[in-house]
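Long-time lurker, first post. I've been practising inverse folding by hand and with some scripts of my own, and I keep getting stuck on stretches where the structure tokens seem ambiguous. Below is the full token string for one chain I'm working on. Before anyone asks, I'm not after the true native sequence, just a reasonable design that respects the backbone. If someone could post their per-position residues I'd love to compare against what I wrote down in my notebook.
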């Protein structure tokens, strides 16, 4: 269905394009190599479609891909023209479907590993936008269109009302049933421990090996990459084997002691280094 829609979009563009000096066919015959060149003209000019009008969605999906692949880094807000796109992406089925592809792959990986059963096989979960979802907060705060506001965000966290990301909760339960223990490793500060524990339990995360929150004194000024790498190193020094590691930020997954495999959940709303 999706592919048909894309093909029909391209075919409409080809049929109505006003690009001069080109023979524009009415139909696409994909077996004809010369016509692939006509298609490319639109890929090279993603913002201008028929009669020079913008093609809705094209540039924002490219932006999102670049963000998810860690090609665009260090951004503070979602580009204004993509805020609406991000909102629809997050609230619609697309985000959920993308998350499911990631957690399904994660479970396949876990099943492929030879587990020892000695209680030292662990899976590292990030918390925000991985285990818990702050979508209710972001939906009423512009989907990342304004810079991070710690006052407002911490007030939301302290309500303890974040729902589970359903795909992650399912993965969590499957991993437990395989005999893998779970470690939550979050950038939330130590003083949010109690509310985080209560929130996790409330939405279905009933057990874990460790919940590691950030010691803001010790890690003052450290990036998430440094903090999380050091904490994972400590885990390995204590004999744990990190079978897998899942998070919505590349800073959850880069650095050292990253585990046997890493899994990146979508997050086009904010960036943490
Ligand atoms: C999400 O997945 C369902 C089931 O596979 C599919 O029917 C639907 O079209 C998908 N939606 C999006 C936006 O990806
Ligand atoms: C698990 O063990 C089997 C049998 O020893 C071996 O063939 C396989 O490659 C191992 N898989 C991994 C992921 O280590
Ligand atoms: C941050 O959020 C607080 C609480 O909602 C609000 O009072 C404050 O104005 C916000 N700061 C900025 C810079 O928007
Ligand atoms: C957190 O919970 C523990 C154990 O229930 C309690 O002793 C402690 O006072 C609580 N801390 C805060 C900051 O509420
Ligand atoms: C945090 O780190 C500081 C400085 O290293 C240390 O004194 C303190 O005990 C730590 N706090 C916790 C809760 O681990
Ligand atoms: C998993 O990671 C550990 C530690 O890096 C490594 O020793 C082990 O060979 C890895 N296992 C697989 C199957 O890749
Ligand atoms: Mg996160």
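-- Answer (accepted) --
I ran through it position by position. Result:
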């Amino acid at each position: 269905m999706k592919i048909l829609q894309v093909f029909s979009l391209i075919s409409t563009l080809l049929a109505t394009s006003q690009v001069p000096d080109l023979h524009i066919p009415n139909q696409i015959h994909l077996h004809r190599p010369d016509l692939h060149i006509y298609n490319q003209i639109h890929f090279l000019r993603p913002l201008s479609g028929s009669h020079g009008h913008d093609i809705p969605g094209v540039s924002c999906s490219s932006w999102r891909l670049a963000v998810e692949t860690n090609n665009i880094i260090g951004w503070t807000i979602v580009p204004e023209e993509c805020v609406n796109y991000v909102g629809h992406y997050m609230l619609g089925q697309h985000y959920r479907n993308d998350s499911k592809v990631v957690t399904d792959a994660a479970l396949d990986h876990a099943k492929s590993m030879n587990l020892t059963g000695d209680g030292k096989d662990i899976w590292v979960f990030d918390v925000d936008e991985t285990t818990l979802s702050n979508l209710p907060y972001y939906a009423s705060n512009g989907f990342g269109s304004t810079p991070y506001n710690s006052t407002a965000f911490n007030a939301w966290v302290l309500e303890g009302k974040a729902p589970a990301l359903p795909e992650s909760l399912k993965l969590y339960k499957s991993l437990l049933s395989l005999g893998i223990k779970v470690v939550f490793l979050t950038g939330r500060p130590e003083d949010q421990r109690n509310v985080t524990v209560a929130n996790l339990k409330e939405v279905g995360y009933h057990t874990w090996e460790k919940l590691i929150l950030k010691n803001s004194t010790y890690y003052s000024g450290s990036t998430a990459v440094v903090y999380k790498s050091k904490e994972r190193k400590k885990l390995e020094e204590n004999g744990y084997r990190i079978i897998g590691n899942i998070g919505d930020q590349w800073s959850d997954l880069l650095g050292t002691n990253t585990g046997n495999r890493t899994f990146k959940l979508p997050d086009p709303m904010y960036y943490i280094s």
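A couple of notes from the structure itself: Residues 149, 151-152 surround 2-acetamido-2-deoxy-beta-D-glucopyranose (ligand 3) (CB under 6 Å). Residues 1-50 have pLDDT under 50 and may be disordered. Happy to go over any region you disagree with.
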